[in-house]
Amino acid sequence: DLFRNHEFLIQKLLGLLPAQEGTPLGESLQLKLALAYVLTYRFTEAQEVLKKLDHSQDLTTRQKAKFYRGWIFKLNAQYDEGAEVLLDLLEEPKLEPELGLGLIAEVADIYYQKKEPIKALGYYKRLSQEAGVESDTLSRRAAVAAWMALGELEQANINLFDLDDPVAADANFDRLGELFPNSQYFGELKRAF
Q1: Of 121, 115, 192, which Cα lies nearest the Cα of 154?
Q2: Are 64 and 49 a contacting pair, CB within 8 Å?
Q3: How wide is the angle at C-alpha 27 spanned by C-alphas 63 and 108, nearest 5°?
Q4: pLDDT in tens, 78-116
Q5: Cα separations in angstroms, 73 against 78, 153, 158, 175
Q6: What is the pTM of this model?
C-alpha cells in the first residue's frame, strides 16, 4: 500500500543521509525525506527536517523548504506561524514568479481561515494584479489566467459573503468575464448571486 511505500522510502532516505550530510545531494535527500514524512502525516518530523534547510546554499531547496514549512503550519491550523514563514519567503530576492503567486494565494487563504476577510481580500487582490503581468508562453499564460481567476473568485466570495458588499462582488465577476470573454460560466455565476 502507498503508506507502506512511503515508510519504506523514509527508512531508505534515513540510511542514505549520513553519508551525504552537508552536500547538495544531502539537502535534496532531506527535502525528499520531509515530503515523505508529510505523506505519512508525520508533520513534526517533517518540520524538523525542513527547518534544517532554512540556511541551504541552494536557493531552490531553501525556498521549497520554507514553502513546505509554512504549508504544514497552515495544515495544522497554526495560521500565525504559517503566515510568518510564507510572508518571510515572499520577501526573498530571486523568488520564482510562480512560487510567488502560490505564496500570495496561501497567505490569502490563511487570513481567510483566521476570519480576517479584509487581509485575505488584500492578498487576493494582489494575486489578481501580480498574476496579470504579461506572460510569454502558452503554459505560463494558462497558469496566470488560473491564478487571476482564483484571485477574483475569492475576492467575490469575501465581498459577497463576508463583507456583504454585492457591488464589489459584481465588479469581481465583471473582471472574470473580461478575463474569459468566451466563457458563459462567469455571467451565469454573476446572475446566480
Answers
A1: 121
A2: no
A3: 20
A4: 999 999 999 999 998 888 888 888 899 999 999 999 999
A5: 5, 25, 23, 33
A6: 0.76
